[in-house]
Design goal:
Order of helices and strands of chain A: EEEHEEHEHHHEHEHEEHHHHEE
Oligomer: heterodimer
CATH class of one domain in chain B: Mainly Alpha
Structural class of chain B: mainly alpha
Distance between the termini of chain A: 23 Å
Radius of gyration of chain B: 25 Å
Number of strands of chain B: 6
Radius of gyration of chain A: 21 Å
Order of helices and strands of chain B: HHHHEEEEHHHEEHHHHHH
Structural class of chain A: alpha/beta
Strand content of chain B: 5-15%
Shape of chain A: globular
């Protein structure tokens, strides 16, 4: 992959200030995303995985500039979008869309499906009402819904159907990048597969690039070409999906992968399950040194003092660990 | 799937559903009917006056009235004590002929009651429109734009909020009623009906703007608004298409309640002679006229009092019904769905 990245994050940092300055605890800073660098290449699917609260959704929202970032730089199609205002971002959003986790909350309950899907078309393109109507029909058909559903309201659909509506809206302008923020985690397992297949199908048809945020490793493995594993706001391991699943380098990745349910009983018996102790530390007060050291079975004094940076290893793999497992 | 069967069914929107629910609420529908009746009857005031051949705005101390073929003066000379005072005649219970008797100016109370109702309803209605419009604009702007806009608007609301409503309304009225307002753009003459409308409209703004601001604040962070930003929808469009429709139910529920509250406020101001100015009538002014006749001719004060009570009651029940109908989490189930 030598082409120019579609989206590039350089040391992107996002901090939230919470609390009240007049209380005992005062203002506190949540380090949600901590100096993340990531290149998204055209046509690939990058899976962002990690536990709840590790900052993967925040990173997704930073990448689409739904959030202002605290530090670092962001480039989309080579254009610096770090400090663009909401208004300046508007034309770019034609080529950069989001699919949200909760299909119940992300559709305005007071608008008909027709209007929800037509919204991006009306805002960005100058189409006649008949053209908009035809396009909405076509989009509903593409995502596997009946065009007869146009005049319904979101509450009349199931979760999976709503997610299809959200996807139809996201692909309406034929974007190049879609950031899918846990698009299937709110759905039943059987419906998850349908949506994952739909996304894969659309990727082929429309030449899409995905950032696929999820905490379910089996889903991520299925859709991703590359995987970025996040822990407490930072990427700890980055590499091709197959490599990472075959040979995780970071102890955290290893633990995560060992927790994936194994459908094959024979293999399941052989597998060594690594159970991490303790909870994820608070992003308000992250640990010194390696963020993972309090829970790492291999931690040394060096890990407690010095923070490892994401360094490139063989091939396309990068790991942020002093003692990578596959070195 | 049932989709095939139901695919051509016309989908009922949230408004249609609410309307259906409301139409099944018997108490609310009765109250709506009563309220409409009150409005219609009040609007017929001029027709009643001309039919009864009476001028409710002119003193007619020397008029006479025919009762049972006898001509009786409207103002009866007192038979007690020194016989100096005059007492207006009481109710004849005969429509078009001093039905509710006369007031201390010899004017037909029934005709004045209808004219008064017209003014009371007009003031309550117009001030409600002012309150809702301004409160919506302020609430939307403060909640959506946040930051400095929110700080400034919220502090202005706090200042208004800091005064008890009646104290503020009375002070404003006392200052403005005699001289009117001249803001260059808007000029309201002293004694104009628009003065109480304007004053009542202003004093209740915080009571609506605050909850609207809170709702907008929550909607601003909702995922569908975030999704709209992600789609590149301009802010003004998000405000109008995504946020306003979601606060409109709250606004609609406020309308009948504000009508009732505004009507009470108007009556209070008029009763204190700082609302509607004579010879114009409102239910509040008629009560004041009747105050001195309370022992001899109680109907002069009683009739407008009952009118106010009835109107406020039906508006409140209607408001409750509307709230139940519009609340998506309401427990009422509809058959056939």
């Amino acid at each position: 992959m030598t082409a120019a990245p579609l989206l590039e994050a350089r040391n992107v940092t996002k901090q939230f200030v919470i609390g009240n300055r007049f209380t005992a605890q005062g203002l506190r800073t949540v380090h949600a995303v901590d100096a993340v660098s990531l290149k998204i290449m055209p046509g690939e699917t990058v899976g962002l995985v990690g536990e709840s609260g590790c900052g993967k959704s925040t990173l997704g929202r930073c990448m689409t500039r739904l959030y202002d970032i605290t530090g670092g730089e962001l480039y989309f199609e080579g254009v610096d979008i770090t400090t663009k205002t909401l208004r300046q971002m508007r034309p770019l959003r034609q080529r950069m869309q989001m699919v949200f986790q909760d299909p119940y909350a992300s559709l305005n309950p007071r608008r008909r499906i027709r209007d929800l899907i037509a919204e991006p078309l009306r805002v960005h393109l100058r189409l006649s009402e008949t053209e908009v109507r035809d396009r909405v029909r076509q989009l509903l058909d593409v995502v596997g819904l009946s065009p007869d559903h146009m005049d319904r309201f979101p509450h009349e659909f199931s979760g999976g159907q709503r997610q299809r509506i959200g996807i139809a809206r996201a692909i309406a302008l034929e974007p190049s990048l879609i950031v899918a923020d846990e698009p299937v985690s709110a759905l039943d397992v059987s419906v998850q597969a349908q949506i994952v297949n739909l996304l894969a199908d659309l990727q082929e048809r429309l030449n899409l690039t995905y950032v696929f945020i999820a905490h379910d490793l089996s889903v991520v493995r299925q859709v991703s070409t590359r995987i970025a594993v996040m822990y407490l706001g930072s990427i700890v391991e980055l590499g091709s999906a197959n490599d990472i699943f075959a040979k995780p380098s970071h102890p955290y990745t290893q633990a995560l992968i060992s927790a994936v349910p194994q459908p094959d009983l024979k293999k399941a018996g052989e597998r060594k399950r690594i159970v991490l102790t303790g909870d994820v530390p608070s992003p308000i007060n992250p640990p010194q040194g390696c963020r993972f050291h309090p829970r790492c079975p291999f931690a040394t004094d060096k890990c407690r003092e010095e923070r490892p940076v994401l360094t490139e290893m063989a091939g396309t793999r990068s790991v942020a660990c002093h003692y990578p497992l596959t070195a | 799937m049932t989709d095939a069967v139901a695919s051509h069914r016309v989908s009922r929107g949230p408004w249609a559903t609410a309307l259906r629910r409301l139409s099944r609420d018997k108490a609310a529908m009765v109250c709506l009917a009563v309220f409409i009746l009150i409005v219609i009857v009040s609007l017929l005031a001029p027709a009643y006056a001309s039919w009864a051949n009476t001028d409710p705005f002119r003193s007619t101390l020397d008029a006479t009235v025919m009762i049972d073929g006898q001509e009786i003066p409207v103002m009866e000379q007192s038979t007690e004590g020194l016989g100096l005072g005059y007492t207006p005649i009481g109710p004849t219970w005969e429509l078009g002929n001093y039905f509710l008797g006369a007031d201390n100016q010899g004017r037909d109370v029934m005709a004045r009651l209808l004219y008064g109702g017209r003014n009371s309803l007009l003031i309550a209605g117009a001030s409600t429109v002012i309150t809702i419009l301004l409160a919506t604009v302020i609430g939307l702007a403060a909640g959506f734009f946040g930051g400095v806009t929110d700080t400034i608007l919220s502090r202005i609301l706090d200042v208004l909020w800091a005064f008890p409503v009646y104290l503020l309304a009375i002070s404003l009225s006392i200052v403005l009623i005699a001289h009117g307002i001249d803001l260059g753009v808007i000029t309201l003459e002293a004694g104009s009906l628009w003065l109480p409308i304007f004053i009542i409209g202003i004093v209740y703004i915080p009571y609506i703007a605050r909850p609207i601001r809170g709702q907008v604040l929550a909607l601003r962070r909702s995922e569908f608004v975030l999704a709209a930003i992600g789609l590149g929808v301009p802010e003004h469009r998000i405000l109008l298409r995504d946020i306003l429709p979601n606060v409109s139910t709250t606004l609609i529920v406020f309308v009948p309640l504000m009508l009732a509250i505004n009507m009470l406020t108007e009556s209070a101001l008029s009763f204190l002679s700082i609302g509607v100015q004579p010879p114009d009538a409102s239910w509040g002014t008629i009560i004041q006229d009747g105050q001195g006749l309370l022992y001899t001719r109680p109907w002069v004060a009683l009739a407008p009092g009952l009118a106010i009570a009835l109107t406020v009651l039906v508006l409140n029940v209607l408001g409750d019904g509307l709230r139940d109908a519009l609340d998506p989490r309401s427990k009422i189930r509809l058959g056939g769905d």
